[in-house]
């Protein structure tokens, strides 16, 4: 393949890193892949995405046999394997997307491979295939996270043959991929498998990063497929014999609004002999149960704009549905659909953010702020300060504030004149390529792409993010003192002050905490 700047590089795609998780291995921990001795593995094409009902395109994609990874590298000199390795963990709310690029997804390598790194992107099990649980040792869940750890083991054992340094591995991800990165920072399963970490727009402390209702949705799935039983083994045996598509389409049946509810995601799996997530992430950090490495964390100025854009897409059909029964949507958005006093929780949020007797359609800015604060800003800000206090390694904090020509609003078909700010996922188009999307061509977009790639790849090389575009350099956060890098085209620089949303977090910090309700 050829990078954006015209550099040639090698692509090895669809390499299996674990046994196919099918048949009796469905809802089981991943097993190492059998070697393909005496055969040549064809890695000229991407492997399938993991099976999913993708709510954005509204049909089932992928296959169950999907535990594959892609490697992009300049150099196959394994006698001199010195290049930093960057392993990308994709987002998608734990139930959709993939690590693929080019034709089937947005994580193509042509920008990053302008730099002297080895890029690895991975696929892992999603939805019920990755996270179903019987809430006991028969099926404790978290298979998708264990898949990621298995992929990291494969990278440790083999990446030197692709010019990569197994002692310089950076894990990075966005949204649920960023929450995954932080789960690896706190999991005994991933200890020693990576050396730096970057979490973009997601944290293990976000309310959706530990799902409280996975067992409830697992029971609903079993009921839907006539597999209900008080015996976990019988439930699992029944579900393992169902066609994969029948499990995948359950997503459509429970969908309230596009990405809501998540339903199947990580959980505290203490039923497991060695839990992947042994305790609440906040407790693990405070107990210093951390795989300590240098860490970059940050967020986009208007994370919740992603949701507003989806409400406005398709001529506003979803927005009209939302306005007819806003409490239904807000219950799911806030993750209290199974909470006894969920309506009481929602009423407190509505009182805090919205003006009475005014329609939600006329309060989209307030709705965006509520989603940004609750779903992203609070958990990310809390995690930054906890890691800076309890980890002995530096934590770097950023705020991404550049709205490019490619953004969620334009990709969802909304008017380019509609400016919802810098949304969740907007930074990805400066880092990755897709063969269906135009390349960056505005001066500011190219500048911001260079800035992000500078910072991320230098950090991967030695744990210190650097770019000649940053005035004064990027300093790690100090304990009890907020400072962050403002990333934009005009004047990227350190800000020695609290984040712009800081005052709004008081409601979530002191007055109200849904997790304790």
From TrEMBL:
Report the superkingdom from the record: Eukaryota
The top of its lineage is: Eukaryota, Metazoa, Ecdysozoa, Arthropoda, Crustacea
Keywords (alphabetical) are: Glycoprotein, Hydrolase, Serine esterase
- Which residue intervals define the domain Carboxylesterase type B in the entry? 4-492
Question: What Pfam families does the annotation carry?
Answer: COesterase
Signal peptide from the UniProt entry: none
Instruction: Give the record's family classification.
Output: Belongs to the type-B carboxylesterase/lipase family.
Q: Which organism is it from?
A: Daphnia pulex (Water flea)
Coiled-coil residue spans? none
Q: What is its EC number?
A: 3.1.1.-
GO MF terms listed in the record are: carboxylic ester hydrolase activity
| Protein name as it appears in the record | Carboxylic ester hydrolase
